[in-house]
Amino acid sequence: MLLGEKLLPTTKISNEENCKRRRIRFTHGTQTRISLALPEQYELVQMMAAHRGHWDTIPEEDLEIHGDSEDPAHRIAELGGVLPYSLLKGKSSQSEREHCFSDCSRECVHLMGVLGLTLPAKEVDVVVAPCRGFQSAEATLGEYVNQVLPVVIFAISEAELSSSDENELREIKEKFSLPIFFFKVPESGVELISPKKTDHEKSSLYCQLMDLEYLSTNHCSCGAPGPDADAQSMLVEQFEKLRLLSTFSRQVLQKHLVEAATSLNEVHCRCLNIFINQAFDMQRDLQITPKRLEYTRKKENELYESLMNIANRKQEEMKDMIIETLSNMKEELLEDAANMEFKDIIIPENGEPVSSKDIKCCIKQIQELIISRLNQAVANKLISSVDYLRESFVGTLERCLKSLEESWEVSVHPARSLEKSKDVSVHITSNYLKQILNAAYHVEVTFHSGSTVTRMLWEQIKQIIQRITWVSPPAITSDWKRKVAQDAIESLSASKLAKSICSQFRTRLNSSHEAFAASLRQLEDGHSGRLEKTEDLWLKVRKDHAPRLARLSLESRSLQDVLLHGKPKLGRELGRGQYGVVYLCDSWGGHFPCALKSVVPPDEKHWNDLALEFHYMRSLQTHERLVHLHGSVIDYGYGGGSSIAVLLIMERLHRDLYTGLKAGLELETRLQIALDVVEGIRYLHSQGLVHRDIKLKNVLLDKKNRAKITDLGFCKPEAMMSGSIVGTPIHMAPELFTGVRPERLPVFDEECWQLMEACWDGDSSQRPLLGIVQPMLQGIMDRLCKSSSEHPNRGLDDST
């Protein structure tokens, strides 16, 4: 029926198990030819019945798979038919393809190359699935569905689906979820013109497909989809309606194209958002890195100066502290020394004297006890005296420095893993900062063996040994140990110890501070080179990469919109702006009425600005203070084919604010409009966007005079702005002008005038934030409304 010839035998098979027909594939060619071939491989040398002479219907024996065949290749081979039919040829030229899809508009054909699609195809293959005993229809589809755009026809010869049919359809639906054209094949000898059913009649076949969820309630009783259906399955039970296969095929191909356009647009938007986020990160890096370096240098200087002040003024305090510490712990030290058990020395129990060598070892161990206790006591008190610096410097300074070092390390060694970048050896500047902190918080380091203080202690204590003279080695008793400890304590000079501790403290601080400063300069030089590269890349993102992706996003989304909703019809002209014309559009995409902004970008820059406007408007959630953008269509034949125009279909409102003011608006209405505009701008700011062209023409009013902001043509994230002056001159930022300010009229309310003056301050840092302006406006409105209600004869002055 499809090809208009009886190519296949119509012998009815009584049992599915007796079916032995192989898969068939028809392709286009100038000469009719039948062959056996392994799929996608090579042709088999096989004598076929069709080769013996002329045929109209392919011989049955060529279709059958012989169960007794010993050649496995013969069993899996498909029958290939090359036929000179126009359906298989498709449309080979561009003009033919455009003509075939004339209803789809030229936008589709223009952008098919972007999608990697050619619709309709240059060639169309017709594949007939083999009998289920050799390969299921689901398996046959699996071989083709990822390589071609499939149009699936399921022919049914009986009044109802068999259980095998139902199982097969369930598997196809579960795995592929493809729309299917179901065709009830008329029985042999039956009239080809089928009797028409009334609207309420539904066949058993229809009900079965409903149960399988191939048909739904929006299908009419004839099995055709309703007017709003989108490439759904279709059931045709009347032969004369086989022509609906053309409509079904068009819907299926359009569905694939819409899916491809949607996927492409998702990729474009995702990549564009990545670039915009990268621009934010780069801008933040360019702004914050110099501030972090300056902060690090400043806070380290403050820390160093604070510690040096402590070292300079603490010497006398340290002396008093050492004297007090020794006085407080003297009795405890003497008692501990008297009860001390010596290591590696055997003391006779009968009180006999020991050797001079053992005496020296005993004295040394008593000295170590005194030094250890003094070390711990003095260190703890010194740490507590500078401990208040911890909260002021350590946390923020260390985190800031760590961030600087890690960002530099990533730029120098991008392949280095996160774990490696945390290696202590990498963060040289942090190591010097830790040395400064050690001088403040780990003073006990200065009392370890080899330090200046320790050597001085040992020199003082050695004098004890020289003063002790023995006629003969003494007996090691508790009194002797107490005497040695007391002499050692009394021989220590608190003033010398304090001076040595503070001197060493200053020496360590100076050394660490100088090393830190040198390392920070090196870190700063490294960041300077890195930031130059970042700024160059930021410029490319803003000027090149993001705008190009924005245009691709606009094109792919416009293709999707025109495929789904068609090209909008332009109504009467509503107004003209600097960059486009606004028309009335009765309805489009289920929205009505609409306004259609037609823009013909004169150059690449305007294309990019328009594309970014489209991206930001489409990415914003619907907000009652912003004009909603329904969609876009690119008209490649605008003006009779001489130019390309972008048609932005938007929400239709009553009038703009300029027209409203000319018609006359009460003060209460004007204040509400001002509040609406502030609310819309605040929402844009919350999304990281700056409008940059707020003016009367870009504020639209509905029939209740509530305002919505439109025309985001100059709207950009702060990170994407280049610093260039844009917008309408009279409405530009106050700092761009000198002296030019509106004249105060006598009717101006004092509070309103003060707010106006504050808002046009030439110094942007002195202007009130919108979060402050909004409640001030609301307060003015509430006050004037209250005054109006108390003095109804006065009213709200319209001239205000």
Summarize the structure.
It contains 22 helices and 17 strands. The protein has 800 residues and is an alpha+beta fold. Among the domains are: 316-343 and 352-526, no CATH class; 567-652, 2-Layer Sandwich (Phosphorylase Kinase, domain 1); 657-800, Orthogonal Bundle (Transferase(Phosphotransferase), domain 1), CATH 1.10.510.
Secondary structure: helix percent: 40-55%
Largest sheet: 5 strands, antiparallel
Poorly predicted runs: 97-120, 417-426, 441-451, 723-730, 796-800
- Molecular shape: flat
- Rg to the nearest angstrom? 45 Å
Strand proportion, as a percent range, falls in 5-15%
List the strand order in the largest sheet: 8-9-10-12-11
Average per-residue pLDDT, rounded, comes to 79
Structural class by helix and strand composition: alpha+beta
Number of strands: 17
- Helical segment count: 22
N- to C-terminal distance: 79 Å
Detailed description of the structure:
The chain has 800 residues and is an alpha+beta fold. Among the domains are: 316-343 and 352-526, no CATH class; 567-652, Phosphorylase Kinase, domain 1 (2-Layer Sandwich); 657-800, Transferase(Phosphotransferase), domain 1, CATH 1.10.510. It has helices spanning 60-63, 72-76, 86-89, 94-100, 106-115, 137-144, 163-175, 204-211, 244-338, 356-386, 389-412, 418-421, 428-441, 452-467, 478-491, 494-565, 604-619, 638-641, 657-663, 667-686, 750-759, 770-790; strands spanning 24-28, 33-37, 78-83, 126-128, 152-156, 180-184, 234-236, 573-576, 581-585, 594-599, 629-637, 643-651, 655-656, 689-690, 699-701, 707-709, 716-717. A hairpin with a 4-residue loop joins β8 (573-576) and β9 (581-585). It is flat and about 135 Å long. The two termini are 79 Å apart.
